[in-house]
Amino acid sequence: MARAAALSNGTASTRTLFQLQANRTWFENLAVRADGTLLATRMDVPEVWSLDPATGVGRLLYTFPNATALTGITEIAPDTYAVTAGDIIITTSGQPTPGTFAVWALDLQGSATPAARLIAAVPGAGFANGLTHFGPNADLVLIADAMYGLIWRLNVVSGASSVALQDATMVRSAESPYLAVNGVRSWGEYVYYTADGTKAVYRIPVDRNATATGPVELVAGGFSGDDFAIAADGTVYVATNTANEVLAISAAGDVSVLAGASASPAVAGCTSVQLSPDGRRLFVTTNGGLIKPVAGGEVPAKVVEVVL
């Protein structure tokens, strides 16, 4: 089912919905609320921002304590989101401090003022990066550990954490000690993940406890992937960060460039993607090319809309 990427410049229509004002900023991940507004985490500071795609108005929603950065965000109950926080130094990449990561619940239900509570620390994590609610078991989230090359399970009720998945495909990148398994998503009976060290997207069948029930399967390879989204028809949309492209992988494993190009600022430093509620648009977070600036240099982090 897997094929190597046959890359060319993306042709999908893109537009910037919102952009921060300063360079060396970093939108890392995002979630889409039921009303269509977006929540975006920042990795340069421990903040969640809210953005209305209809108006392009963005605002700081919540600042988390006892951390310098946020990474993943995923909905775990109606309008309640798990958020990973920890200590990361932003230089030409993200350099994490192992043992500092924790998962919080951010409650946006029924109040103009968000409320946050600590779900649990994950002291064994080296770099808690990608985060997803595990569909078959509502009590679990899965956390991609980009330093140690494994995927944690965390029970959001009890706070207990343990290693769920680990495989040779999740090894660290030769270019960076902080980029092994990166993004993670739960879809059907599978857990999908991106792996920088082996430059591919994989999936693995799992049971209700997120334990593997079969071997790892290659979805597509030949590129480095960050966070990603999976559409109802099985299409996987992948942010490639330093490649400055958003890729589309069909259910048959065909890979194409949906948006961006290596020298284009359109989605430079794209870090994550999520689908709109109607499935017709893709929202993309970026770090503005902070790690690898495109021609013309780095720009402030932004959120981009891609029309499908």
TrEMBL record:
Q: Which domain of life is it from?
A: Eukaryota
InterPro entries reported for this sequence:
6-blade_b-propeller_TolB-like, Hetero-Diels-Alderase-like
Q: Which SUPFAM superfamilies match?
A: Calcium-dependent phosphotriesterase (SSF63829)
Protein name as catalogued: SMP-30/Gluconolactonase/LRE-like region domain-containing protein
Q: Which organism is it from?
A: Aspergillus heteromorphus CBS 117.55
Write the lineage as a comma-separated list: Eukaryota, Fungi, Dikarya, Ascomycota, Pezizomycotina
